[in-house]
Fold these 2 entries.
Entry 1:
Amino acid sequence: MRFLTTFQMADFFDTLVSLSTAFVFGALIGAERQYRLRTAGLRTNVLVAVGAAAFVDLAMALANADGAVRVIAYVVSGIGFLGAGVIMKEGTNVRGLNTAATLWSSAAVGCCAGADMIAQAGALTVFVLAGNTLLRPLVNAINRIPLDEGAAEATYQVVLTVDADAMSELRDTLSETLEKAHYPVADIDIVERTDDVVEIIATLVSNTVESKELDAVTSELECMPGVRHATWDSSTSND
């Protein structure tokens, strides 16, 4: 058997270190995505990181650095197809871009691990986690800045993350609460996140929105039984 003549314990141990590193760092990134109930969660990010590490490690073993560089180029483009699978268009909005970018970053972590750049893989993991967690308050703060309606057409949405068995009742409650606050609803979408959790997304009729009023509405909704999280955001069609 060729295996008996080519097997080297040192090389095998090196591969184990690379794959283990990719597994651990991919799990850290994926755990944050899983907590946020994103489409690509813990297992997906781990598999992306470990798969990228395996391909790069194999190329390093067969063709040294030149082979690894070629494989990394294919990994970068290949992950793009995987990322496209988690991007969803809902009406005028596109969801999943951040999750797709996280998958791309997990692949980069795996490539670093496969190339035996363990410290670089760890540093990249820290930056990815920081981007998905530490920047979240800043994003929320920016989204709450009143838009100049004369220069941009704004779309406002109220999003409830709720238990699936309470979805029908909370959908009606959301609509009634917004109507009571003088924010009529143009459309309501339901997005399944897991078997037990769904998102109710209410798109408001174009109107002048006061951030403090919507903050009060979401705070009231978040206290209702079956509601796990309530928030609102805005988007604009003009740069």
Entry 2:
Amino acid sequence: MKHNESTDDLLRRHRKFWEMDDVDSPLMSVGRYVSLQNRDPIPMANGKPVQDGEILLPAALRAIHLMEQSNAPDAVVQGDFIRGRSPYDLCWTEAISGCQIRWRAGHIWADPFIEDLNEVEHLQANPDSEWLSLLLELTRLLAEAADGAYPVTQPLMRGPIDIASAIVGDEPLCWEMVDEPNRFRLLMRVSTDLFITIAKAWRDAAPLFAGGSCLYGIWAPGTAVRIQADNAALMSPGTYRDFLLPCDERICAAFDYPLMHTHSGVLHIIADALLELDGLRAIQVSLDYPAPPPISELLPVLQKVNGRKPLIITGSVTQSELDSLLDALSPAGLCLQVALRDG
């Protein structure tokens, strides 16, 4: 595949991001804030739109219909970023793990399915899973349509703690952590196995772009994966380090450029532990407006991350908050993808 000069120049800038080289300015995009919108209903195989509360089954879906729910980028290079096309988000990891998937209130939800927690040791990613087959078929269709002109990017894949919570439910997960720590460790190990197996299968189906992969529009010269730990909100820094850090280490060892997605509301719980992960290449923080903490309280931990690892900040900010981020953070290894809102 031949790139034009602007694409090649951007690939060089992205390589500098990962290496945290000295630069004059961060990778950056600034848009206008729009509140979260419901998605359009998915077209089912019978041609009818999905109904509220309906359980989704892979046999009732068609990869070609899901492909039509996303558009190819008008231009590969858009400002500081490379745009691609991703499989439609269908709670893939949860579905492949065994959760029932449901359309409710304009979004996709996964229902817990294990009540007897002694069953968790039998969980595994079934290579014959219809959900996995659907994901890989959709990925190959997207790759065929792209034909190397733009990257096929990773769909949303929950991290181990989020998969575990989806499988057993939030409240049982918390009790398990306290009352049965050894069984909880087993659940986390199984959830990590599931994540790695699914992510590797997807990665094998998605072609590299210019010899690399894209996350958040940033090209990495190798295999990249987005991990997440949203349900770390249920943990303390100590329990995260004890139970989940070993899971993150295993995932980081399986890919060249692992990136951890976090939220501003949990960053104080996991930041110090993540900075100890040598294999973790970057940390992404979603700002949880209007939830606390405010940017002013986040700055110390953001500065700490910014000094050690590449940092991606996404979400809604005011102009004064954006100015404070630019003033307080080094442009080396920094990416800001933000939307401006009024005060």
